[in-house]
Write a structure and sequence with these properties.
Length: 680
């Protein structure tokens, strides 16, 4: 048995080609399958099977396309609701790959239906030393995180993860080789151990956090306490992988000249400069965003960019653009809307060029009055921080710009300079004066800056101030989280919502005629909302007792039993948070507000109806259909569009690219092109 490792350092993942010299099994392939095909060609083997350990959250799988290209059998958990052809397997199943035997082991934890694959070579020199491909279950020194499915399932999945690790340890001997998919910088990893592993199960017994903690409750407490933020784009990976991703197009993007770049910047599109961060700081086109083409490039583009936003790439060479393009397709950003190569002088035309300083911590120490902004994650800052520094994690920066002081220069730092460089570029784009601290955080204390413990730090001293009172929520903002009492019990909004779409709507009062018809109508559309992966949540400022008393009336009048929770908000906390009370319409009750919120918790639609006018729920369904279609395809929808009707090719997509991706493209004007609905 030979195992060929295919690294994807940009995501911290590994795929594997396992073979007997003639036939091969591929485990967890990435979407750019040319690397897998090259590895098989070099080994002189035929790919006969492809095995997925789980529905991936951090990348778009290449398994389905690889199976179609090679004719191999795609193996996946039978319990997953996959919408494409595959061989469904479950715990205890076995299959052969040439002379190799593969045993399926159910190892829930990272996901509920997660599988590991034990591969043995009965006739090989090491017949007693199997290989186990553990995906996001048992990693080197740790296990996969358990909070990517639902906040409500974290405790259950963490306990399952602990038991799965112990089951593998009981099933296999010390000489078994462990081959995880995650754990090499991936945000799919959880807590880390202090020891090193040589990749054998024997070593894992000594260093792995799941195998060295004797008490399950203790393990759960430790793991959950250390779970940190994960990229927002993860919310889009599961649905793509369940549906079955298509092939990628890695042909060069359409060239874009300085005039067109200026138009795209003016429209607010993302124009991403791939050059090294110090080069960007020294000279860049105003309005562009510097994200250095390094191992974490795609992770932070996916984390920060509004999903579906057209992206144009600027690189020094075509090879740099091609590498960025390859990284982006792995996370579902399929086609850049264009690209340009060279440098700022080639890209700017008559436009503005900008620059900002780059310093080390030693230079920061010489500026005692500097306003320092820490953009590390909360868990990093919890360990220690620079005394007096502000804190705004980079993944919250875009939605909380207005919390930062705009009358002073911000000196921006992270742990190494990479994230700080992105934050500095975004702040510069928004008009802030910035200085990039491009230095390792470990050098701050040696430079003379005072480092203090993060635990218990004063928010007034260390956190960027938060807004209070009624909020103005804009499209693209993160929907504010809250905890509230509802007719289904107490919920925390983001946890209750999970990775679903959601409709949050307010009604003025219980026991009122228009509201009765509205809530009954929403209940009657349950199947329609379910088909769109959408949860419904209502709100009024009435007490919970009134909600419960009113519910039978709704069922009696409309014939639809209430099947979604209603928030009781008598203290108006949620109503104020979402701006649902309009003084001009009366201060006591909410207006008829509607918020459509996507899987990444971004607000995608806001509608406000006066108290006397009932909502059009058919329009809500139409907009959700349009949003889901335009998120998944390079399209927009025309006026009065309905599913199945012709769509508009997005402005960020060239006609050439559109004809490769869409059917029956028709150009009516250079800026107006129609195509068939790709979701029909």
């Amino acid at each position: 048995m030979q195992v060929v490792t295919i690294e994807t350092p940009s995501l911290g993942d590994r795929s594997y080609l396992v073979h007997d010299g003639a036939s091969a099994l591929v485990v967890d392939p990435q979407r750019d399958i040319d690397r897998v095909l090259d590895a098989a060609r070099e080994a002189g083997v035929d790919i006969t099977h492809i095995a997925e350990t789980h529905v991936h959250n951090d990348y778009v799988s290449g398994g389905l396309v690889l199976a179609r290209v090679t004719g191999a059998t795609l193996v996946h958990a039978g319990a997953e609701p996959l919408r494409f052809e595959h061989r469904a397997v479950a715990d205890g199943d076995r299959f052969a790959v040439g002379d190799l035997t593969v045993e399926v082991v159910h190892t829930p934890g990272h996901t509920p239906h997660h599988l590991s694959y034990v591969v043995r070579d009965p006739g090989g020199d090491e017949a007693g030393a199997p290989a186990v491909f553990t995906g996001g279950s048992l990693l080197y020194g740790t296990v996969g995180r358990t909070d990517l499915i639902s906040a409500d399932m974290v405790d259950e999945l963490t306990r399952a993860q602990y038991r799965s690790a112990h089951r593998l340890a009981e099933l296999l001997g010390d000489d078994a080789r462990v081959y995880p998919t995650h754990g090499f910088g991936s945000f799919c990893s959880s807590i880390q151990s202090e020891g090193d592993s040589d990749g054998t199960l024997g070593a894992e017994r000594l260093v792995n956090s799941a195998l060295t903690v004797d008490d399950e409750d203790d393990f759960v407490e430790r793991l959950v306490a250390r779970l940190s933020a994960h990229p927002r784009y993860y919310a889009h990976m599961g649905p793509l992988n369940l549906a079955g991703p298509g092939p990628v197009d890695l042909s060069p993007p359409v060239p874009v000249d300085a005039t067109e770049l200026a138009r795209r910047i003016h429209r607010g599109e993302w124009v991403v400069d791939l050059r090294e961060r110090r080069l960007f700081a020294a000279d860049h086109v105003a309005g562009t965003i510097g994200i250095e083409l390094a191992d974490n490039f795609s992770t932070y583009v996916g984390w920060l960019i509004p999903w579906g936003m057209p992206v144009t790439l600027l690189g020094e060479t075509p090879e740099q653009v091609a590498e960025a393009q390859r990284q982006l397709v792995r996370i579902g950003i399929d086609r850049p809307s264009g690209a340009a190569t060279g440098g700022p002088a080639d890209w700017v035309g008559d436009g503005e060029r900008r620059r900002y300083p780059v310093v080390t911590f030693a230079e920061v120490a010489e500026q005692p009055d500097a306003t320092i902004l820490d953009v590390r994650r909360d868990d990093e800052r919890a360990d220690d921080l620079i005394e007096g520094s502000l804190h705004l994690p980079i993944h919250d920066l875009l939605r909380r710009f207005d919390e930062l002081p705009d009358t002073t220069t911000l000196w921006v730092h992270c742990a190494s300079g990479f994230r700080a460089s992105i934050a500095a570029a975004l702040l510069d784009r928004a008009g802030h004066d910035v200085v990039l601290i491009d230095d390792d955080y470990d050098n701050a204390a040696a430079a003379g800056l005072r480092i203090v413990a993060g635990t218990g730090s004063s928010p007034e001293t260390h956190e960027a101030p938060r807004r209070s009172g009624t909020m103005s929520i804009l499209l693209g903002d993160e929907a504010p989280d809250f905890t509230a009492d509802t007719t289904d019990g107490t919920i925390t909004f983001h946890d209750w919502k999970g990775d679903s779409w959601a409709v949050l709507f307010s009604h003025p009062a219980d026991y009122t005629p228009v509201c009765t018809t509205e809530l009954g109508r929403a209940a009657g559309l349950k199947d329609e909302f379910d088909a769109r992966g959408t949860k419904v949540l209502a709100l009024s400022v009435d007490p919970i007792e009134d909600h419960h008393g009113w519910a039978p009336d709704i069922g009696e009048v409309t014939g639809n039993t209430l099947n979604f929770p209603i928030i009781a908000d008598p203290d108006r906390k949620v109503a104020d948070l979402y701006g649902m009370i309009h003084p001009g319409e009366g201060d006591d009750n909410t207006v008829r507000s509607v918020f459509v919120i996507d899987p990444a918790n971004r607000v995608r639609l806001t509608l406000t109806y006066p108290k006397s006018v009932g909502r059009n729920f058919d329009e809500l369904l139409r907009v959700i259909d349009a949003l889901q279609a335009t998120d998944a395809n390079p399209i927009a929808t025309p006026a009065d569009w309905r599913p199945g009707e012709r769509v508009i090719v997005g402005l960020g997509t060239s006609t050439e690219d559109a004809r490769r991706q869409l059917a029956n493209v028709e150009e009516r004007k250079p800026y107006l092109r129609y195509a068939d609905d790709p979701t029909a």
